[in-house]
Specification:
Mean pLDDT of chain A: 88
Number of domains of chain A: 3
CATH class of the largest domain in chain A: Mainly Alpha
Largest interface: A-B, 115 and 115 residues
Largest sheet of chain A: 3 strands, mixed
CATH superfamily of the largest domain in chain A: SLC41 divalent cation transporters, integral membrane domain
Low-confidence stretches of chain A: none
CATH topology of the largest domain in chain A: Tetracycline Repressor, domain 2
Number of helices of chain A: 21
Shape of chain A: elongated
Oligomer: homodimer
Chain lengths: 437, 437
């Protein structure tokens, strides 16, 4: 397969669409140094799949190329029955560190941290510190930007950057140069909160401490970019009504793809069946005034669309930390006004449409004005209700301990479809009593 | 208002819900050093609003606290008629830099870059380089992690980190220590592509070069976190069918909120009116078989939901660079299988529901089996069509030069509602001919 001799960049681009065999072949073809760089560019999932596809004799080399946190991520992505074998490939000290990291949940600060970081004592001079770091840095694989100053029990006292040390006179003490207000995070902090801390303080690295204030490791901003990207993907998929996919679109096996989508789709379908029940209740009315049926899709979809808008805005604002549970009343007040405004706009368009069509085609019979009024009033009610339901549902889910992003656009639309029908036919019953009904 | 004496953290948390007056009051109350830190934590938009709300005499102080790229961002966020006044507050050299930055579009690499970075010549020794950087670093406000090696015309030759310099013997030359494969980006690169480069190579900083390979500035990973977050927010809002909001949910004035939502909602409403037209075409059929109307919401919403899923997955995969235009055929093939699978699942549920209800309540008349068959076949057709339409629409938008995220869930749902009705009533016409119709 001479035509499969990819350059590293070509291989990276083609990766998502290659079979596992083709990947191994392309990877084995790379020069050793190219292969190192290439391996480090892959995501943890891709690394795990690749390492497991390589002959057992070659695996050790690649897993040992990784820092402990990356090795832990790789092992977490591997099937449960392969994990022990992979751990056995590490040297003793790394294996201990990796095992420590595997105890943390994947989505908390401890699960993101790197346990290899540089530390100094406060009473060293700057020259001593630089000499120490020169020796120390040669042994570390990862680039280090900040150095943490700790006491004998590893309590965090301060932080200096390499730049601070270079700029400072050599006979100063580390304690003179270090900054003492260090922003640190507890090891069980949720990764979404951690990334908000990073963004707010424009940090490159943050020390992670245990309940006693002892430093356990550091998190790099590069991992945070990944977290922000992944959390957004999760939220987007939930908003679209799909269970979170654990991989790129083209790489998900078709059966898994169907399963990931069928769950929500079937749940929504069961919910939506209530519309058939609701319509059944009004079957006599529809039989008497078929014209009412014509506007059913228009009215319920308007409620669904305004609900989608509201829920999307609220879910995202919550994820960005702009909205908290206690803001629910402010949100309802805003959505009352917004929903009313939007409902009136759609009602005017709907009213105009029916009157114009009636003028042109005599489409809606002698009671066309009452029909138009029914549609317009229903639109106000349904859009208002959609906006309020869509905005409040994420709060309810969150208060109950669920992910607010589960208040997906299709979920809200389904909820509003059922109630929208009831609103519509109830208004019709009042407005059209004695004429069409 | 002694009770408004916020600590900086309290003020930061309360910021989104405070009036502009309260913000100024809270800000003026902070100690000078606290106020500096606080100001630097704010977003560019918040900084611009705050600076403009301060008395003119105090503005200079705050805008001069910022690096040129941050000052440029602040000015970009200010109303057009205030920009000249704000520029006038800067010193001459910063003003020239800021004006250069303002020439770049906000969403391209040049618009994100910082023009203050450290550079070295290749023929310096490491000791000379460190001595130079010690002087140089004292003058820079921003922390510097990488130093770029350039020739006399500012062409980029290589990169060294502070750490590389500290670790290297002092009499080596910079050219011995520097890495020559520098990943750089052209100044007109789109910020989404730029952030993918950062993530792929785990970078902290990237030099930005012009068409001649001369370095123009650097972009920091901190700005990339912001970009990733903002792009995700934009996509989420578009997927939800809202024009992008330029600020936190609670801060958008209500009239603007209504305008941002009314545009899409009205457009969708106009599209959805076609459902009334389509239903009108089948009015005679509905009058003859009212039972058909009962399932209209169920069928069209199933198409809309499967369309939402497909469009959301494809839009996100495109944003992450997992799908490109040329993948459209692979996607259609996948959605054909997935849509068919999902359609069959919903059809089975629907069929079972109608048969059970018929058994329990005799709800659907003597031709209940044909009705059930109509519903089941329509579900297969509509879900299949929803999956394909939802997945292909982002490709069409992108090929035409629009943002694929505009293929929002409500947009796809509306498209599928109209076509779904046609599918349903066409199938009904065939299956029920001679019995109900």
């Amino acid at each position: 397969m001479a035509d499969k001799n990819f350059t590293p960049a070509e291989l990276y681009d083609a990766w998502p669409v290659l079979s596992m065999e083709e990947r191994v072949e392309g990877f084995e073809f790379l020069q050793r140094e190219e292969a190192d760089d290439f391996f480090l560019q892959l995501s943890a999932r891709d690394r795990a799949q690749l390492v497991l596809a390589l002959p057992p004799g070659e695996r050790r080399l690649w897993i040992r190329l990784l820092a402990p946190d990356d090795a832990a991520d790789l092992i977490q992505e591997a099937p449960a029955d392969e994990r022990e074998n992979l751990l056995a490939l590490l040297d003793d000290s790394t294996r201990r560190e990796v095992k420590g990291l595997l105890d943390y949940a994947e989505d908390e600060a401890g699960g993101l941290m790197n346990t290899r970081y540089s530390r100094l004592r406060a009473d060293m001079t700057v020259d001593e510190a630089i000499a120490y770091l020169r020796r120390d840095a040669r042994q570390r694989e990862k680039t280090v930007y900040y150095v943490y100053v700790v006491d004998a029990e590893e309590h965090l006292l301060g932080v200096v950057s390499f730049r601070d040390l270079i700029v400072a006179p050599g006979d100063n003490h580390v304690s003179d140069v270090m900054r003492m207000e260090v922003i640190s995070a507890p090891d069980d902090l949720d990764q979404e909160a951690l990334s908000q801390l990073f963004m707010r303080h424009h940090l490159l690295m943050m020390p992670i401490v245990d309940a006693q204030g002892r430093i356990k490791g550091v998190v790099n901003v590069n991992d945070i970019v990944q977290v922000v990207q992944e959390e957004a993907t999760e939220d987007i998929q939930k908003i679209g009504g799909v269970a979170t996919l654990e991989g790129p679109y083209l790489q998900i096996p078709l059966l898994l793809m169907i399963r990931k989508r069928a769950g929500w789709l079937a749940a929504l379908f069961l919910g939506e069946m209530l519309t058939a029940t609701a319509m059944g209740q009004f079957e006599a009315e529809i039989a008497r005034a078929v014209v009412l049926a014509l506007f059913v899709p228009l009215i319920i979809s308007s409620g669904g669309n305004s609900g989608s808008q509201a829920t999307t805005l609220v879910i995202r604002a919550m994820a960005l930390g702009e909205l908290r549970l206690r803001d629910w009343w402010r949100v309802i007040r805003r959505e009352l006004v917004t929903g009313l405004g939007l409902g009136l706009i759609l009602a005017s368009i709907g009213l105009a449409r029916i009157l114009v069509w009636q003028g042109l085609f005599k489409a809606y019979g002698e009671h066309y004005f009452l029909v138009a009024l029914t549609v317009a009033l229903s639109l106000v009610g349904v859009v208002l209700w959609g906006s309020i339901a869509g905005s409040i549902l994420p709060f309810i889910l969150r208060a109950l301990g669920f992910d607010p992003a589960s208040a997906s656009a299709p979920f809200v639309a389904t909820l509003v479809d059922v109630t929208g029908l009831i609103i519509y036919f109830s208004i019709a019953a009042v407005v059209l009593r004695g004429t069409l009904l």
